[in-house]
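Reply to dn_fold:

You asked what the input looked like. This is it:
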Amino acid sequence: MKNSSGTETLGRIREALEAAVSVLSSFVPGTVRVHHGSVRGPVTEADLLVNQVLREVLLRDGEGWLSEESVDDFCRLKKHRVWVVDPLDGTREFVAGIPEWCVSVGLVENRRAIAGGICNPATGETFLGSLDTGVTYNGETVWASKKMDLARALVLASRTEVELGEWKPFQDTRLVIRPVGSVAYKLALVSAGLAEATWTLTPKNEWDVAAGVALVEAAGGFVRSLANSSLTFNNEMTLVSGLLAGGPHLREQLTSLIQRHREGYASGAVVSTSSEQRRR
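and this is what came back:
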């Protein structure tokens, strides 16, 4: 087998995304009914069918599996390589017909996200890459933003967090803030240099962000937790407390901005971590 983060792995991810898009072509976003509810939020038949086809295409002997729509098998904790996937990130947008949802496939090796593929069928965008190969956007090589300062920097915000007023402290900054649904899609856009940064103030699960983290880092960008530590994956507890991602030259400025925000919350404000918010 070729290097796990090389062309063989990317070919498998590409095949899985194409199979997922084929499944999704039979659904019309905006007209899909919720199949059943769960503590994680709404689930549709599309989520479940895409999960099935991703597993069939991706999983090989000796590899682990972690998906939002699969019962967690803790045998994955003993695996060297683990697929971490979200069959449909942004289910609410999918159900509402808002084109801010995607299929997210990440490969974790030794607890680090090393490769990923994110496809937004509604916009015809595919982001694919690994730490070894870099990132392509619809087949063209891309890099994270090289912008040097925050003036007019485009930052993609959680639509839910904006609606709840949690981004008000950032409204008077020099940033251009744009609410977007799926966190995986936001990370993919940052990896391609189509936005300077994104962050989430509320917890996410590993399947929400693994592929996007791999893409941003593969494109030369940075990803850190809100506490300014690196992220690890294939943990027993899959919740990620929050993250910050952006172009390489903005790391110190963005980290300082987030730190000031966290200090403000530490003085008395409380951030909700409800399951409703974790879906974005």
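Helices lie at 7-24, 45-58, 91-96, 159-163, 183-191, 206-218, 251-266, 275-278.
Hope that clears it up.
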